[in-house]
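Researcher: Here's the sequence for the chain we discussed earlier.
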Amino acid sequence: MAYRVIIRCPDAEDIIKLLKQKHGPDYSRVWRIDGRTIGVFSFERSGTPFPFGVYVRLITLEHDKASERCDITILGAGGSMIGVAELDPPKAGPVPDLVRMAKERGWEIHIEEAKIESRGSQCPNCGSAYVYSKEKVQADGSVVCQNCGKPFMIQE
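Model: Thanks. This is the structure I predict for it:
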């Protein structure tokens, strides 16, 4: 199952620090573009004690400074188990950690199941390739590149 966590906070630095250290030790990358902070974090394990082989957790973060909205998506992939995003022991995964952080700081938080409907495309301006969720695609079929911040039309 994929999760979407929305937190109202003035900046995402504490969240980024948590995700980098605890939930994205294998890869983390953060960009800051025009008042937005975008982050990608991954955690991969193979040879787990489970009979599922390899599993990966991918976390994306987008924080908008103006609206103080931090949108985090947590997706598990790999293995043969649905819901691998939460393979951690109870109360130790990214969702409980984010809830705990929000409560400690008095931030508003909302958690829901993420509906992953996406399309991928390569930015003609910088060449980066991404998968965009349906909600990021504008009515005219354009998206804003997560790397360079320039809009472009998604190719079907």
